């Protein structure tokens, strides 16, 4: 059981909640390696994936997680861009509530939208990424992956590189790492930095080369091509010159350090094609952790303890 | 019929009065002012404990008619204003059709005359369709009853256009009210760039998107000799630009809203309360303090509500999709009284200046002074009484107040317009 009914932002979770999720995810990761991966734990439960912004990877991860727990997973997609056309989010929420779903995952292009669902629904609401605000389940799978790689996160130095101000991934990862005692550095050009990085628990270094050797984890963010058009940075090429991980920079990174990325990666922009196969790159570990962590969240929210797991 | 106000705390810095007095009103004007007055026949009103000031005027509001009557009408907005103590209000031209020609102004004037809650003075648009490209017919609109001009809601982006408007308007000596927002810098920012944008993950816009425009318009006021009034100041650097222009004796003035004076970006907390989505956005605590200081020191001339009614379906949506604005008539006087006068940061005289005298002067309305012979327009409020503002309790059609839940002193009890009692003990007197 979690201390919170909903997972709207990462700070909804207590340290104990995070601990439960990460521990429970371990059991599920085991199950995901079996040939028969399906459990009856959430049989008869209804989980809706309401994705109002295009996403394949995250939605698939949630869908697999729900199905492996035996729940009925329904995917809904649509556009959230218009207030004039179609149904309001409030009405969508009330409609889905009337259908009696047990847990709803919301992906939305605007920050704060999951709150509207929480205010209008009885089911558990999980934020599957809201605008440029937060992406708490990504943060939990990142914490899970990091802990497996480096053990206790406390005291570790994590550099997050890329378009921080537009990144919901950084928006929840940085405060979570900070709360767990890690040192977080935003490494980006000033045009990619939020107004007050300290509020997210991070310090700033605009030079990757000045601090890459100090990092335990190098966390790369995807560079949106449409934001590399001269308005914030001159070009993807120049970004890559300053912040891209080529073989030379990979050599400067400690051999005990790791490279993570929430995906999908832009080969040749934030990371060179040759570096992707470096054993320190753990992107696929993050992807598999994603399924286990999302299973753990669903399991703990829907009170699965009663039926017990047979891991 | 004569009215006698007994034992009122009368305050009017225009005449220097700030004491307990009796007032006799006859034929729409003040007939006698003094102590221990009596009238042979008429109505006597006990004003013990109450403060009586010249009728307050709001120079910035949206009444939504024509075109958006589902949000508010001239009558419902005027009723809300009367409840807030206003004798005169203005309405911005961003209606549908836009009030950018004499016939729409005439329509608004006619609709305003069909109600008797308070006087309504329409603003005309500066540019056709509020598009910032071509001057609207300012003279024709002025003849039809437009009291001032503004492209409120969107700043005039072209300096050349603003210059032409200022030059042209000089010959009628009318006020141009500037919505100061550089759209290239503001972008899609819907909260302040700072704590709000960082913590809420919402697009931010810096205070400088206002201050660069204020600075531009101060330069244009110098170039043209025209009159610029800066609407809804929100940033400390915008205030600095106005202060510097005033030091050069330019014909400039400025206003601030109660929500920018008494709220800041941290009030958004993590609530995503769309009633706090206003344009310009609530800014930092430093900006808020600078606005208060500027109101007290005279840099800012006017408190104006920017009353912006919206239907619930336009506010009960995602923050980024929500309409901008808060209603403001019913809370303005209690907010200024409670937060500035009662707390002794600002004098009662200054409240009268910024809410009654200065807007009248700037707009060229008929002066109201508490002296024998002057038009008898009064706002009466009880400084000892409190009211907690709740959604559903506003007289406006709309309930989108940024101050829901606030308990405030200075409840408006009575309004007198032209010698007529239009609000009595908080109740509207129909006529």
Can you put this structure into words, describing what you see?
The complex is a heterodimer of chains A (311) and B (431). Chain A is α/β, with parallel strands linked by helices. Chain A has eleven helices and nine strands. In chain A, the strands form two sheets. Chain A has a five-stranded parallel sheet with strand order 7-6-5-8-9. In chain A, strands 2-1-3-4 form a four-stranded parallel sheet, sandwiched between helices. In chain A, helix 5 packs across helix 6. The longest helix of chain A has 19 residues. Chain A is globular. Chain B has 431 residues and is an alpha/beta fold. Chain B has 13 helices and 19 strands. In chain B, the strands form three sheets. In chain B, strands 1, 2, 3, 4, 5, 16, 17, 18 and 19 form a nine-stranded mixed sheet that branches. Chain B has an eight-stranded parallel sheet with strand order 6-7-8-9-10-13-14-15. In chain B, helix 7 packs parallel to helix 8 and helix 8 runs parallel beside helix 10. Chain B is globular and about 65 Å long. The relative contact order of chain B is 0.16. The mean pLDDT of chain B is 97. The chains are: A alpha/beta (311), B alpha/beta (431). Chains A and B meet through helix 4 of A and helix 6 of B.
